[in-house]
From TrEMBL:
Keyword Cytoplasm listed: yes
Domain AB hydrolase-1: 16-242
Binding site for substrate: 22, 82-83, 143-147, 235
Sequence similarity: Belongs to the AB hydrolase superfamily. Carboxylesterase BioH family.
Record field: catalytic activity: 6-carboxyhexanoyl-[ACP] methyl ester + H2O = 6-carboxyhexanoyl-[ACP] + methanol + H(+)
Gene source species: Cedecea davisae
Chief location: cytoplasm
Descriptive protein name: Pimeloyl-[acyl-carrier protein] methyl ester esterase
UniProt-listed Enzyme Commission number(s): 3.1.1.85
Functional pathway: Cofactor biosynthesis; biotin biosynthesis
Length: 261
């Protein structure tokens, strides 16, 4: 039986749902849950097929969003990292009335590079899909190493990410492949241009997966959203710079023109 793992904690009155990235689970938020839990009611989720959310096969982006929505509070701020940012964005498109605010972290509405659009080269994502079937644990570890490359704390950050993966059974190859397929094919650029949801976009200047060149492009396309780049962070700013990350989020939640109840 398929069941989504979901844990609620924290003392705040506003609901904040945290969605992790590809290959990982809700353990990635360990660095920031104490701080954020004193301001929000946190909802920690393992995405379908990841971590403790067992029994799911490969899902489309829309199916993943609908599965998470089914268990979610009626109205919440949604924060999604990387692949989780796509899921949170899809939720804001499907049911905007249930989204008080959207925060995407080191995420892109279109992860694949094409023409003038910066992103991950299609052959790199295709290579990861190919390697998954040969040695999927090593492939996941390589992907994690890319996420911290260039930061001052890269070694300890990648150790933390690996420990989060190893705490739980590895996701099925089918699920991991499905996640890479979403990263390869999803394109929410046009759909999100019409969104009226308050949107904060957070990036790492050293991120090799979501190039900082997309920031001004989206500033122009989505003038209703707000962006911030963490100067010394890569793909996981909440791990490398937890205090700065929490401060930015809390300031935005106070002054970010969130949808009223």
């Amino acid at each position: 039986m398929s069941e989504l793992w979901w844990k609620t904690k924290g003392e705040g009155k506003d609901d904040l749902v945290l969605l992790h990235g590809w290959g990982l689970n809700a353990g990635v938020w360990h660095n920031i849950t104490a701080e954020l839990g004193s301001h929000f009611r946190l909802h920690l989720v393992d995405l379908p097929g990841y971590g403790r959310s067992k029994g799911f096969g490969a899902l489309t982006l829309e199916q993943m969003a609908e599965t998470v929505l089914a268990q979610a509070p009626e109205r919440a701020i949604w924060l999604g990292w990387s692949l989780g940012g796509l899921v949170a964005s899809q939720i804001a498109l499907l049911q905007p009335e249930r989204v008080r605010g959207l925060v995407t972290v080191a995420s892109s509405p279109c992860f694949t590079a094409s023409g003038e659009w910066p992103g991950i080269k299609p052959e790199v994502l295709a290579g990861f899909q190919q390697q998954l079937s040969e040695d999927f644990q090593r492939t996941v570890e390589r992907f994690l190493a890319l996420q911290t490359l260039g930061t001052e704390t890269a070694r300890q950050d990648v150790r933390l990410l690996k420990s989060v993966v190893l705490e739980q059974p590895m996701p099925e190859v089918e699920v991991l492949n499905g996640g890479l397929e979403i990263l390869r094919t999803a394109d929410l650029r046009a759909a999100l241009a019409n969104s009226t949801v308050s949107h904060l976009r957070l990036y790492g200047r050293l991120d090799g997966l979501v190039p900082r060149k997309i920031v001004p492009l989206l500033d122009e396309r989505w003038p209703q959203s707000r962006s911030q780049i963490f100067a010394k962070a890569a793909h996981a700013p909440f791990i490398s710079h937890p205090n700065e990350f929490c401060q930015t989020l809390l300031e935005w939640s106070r002054f970010g023109e969130l949808k009223n109840e």
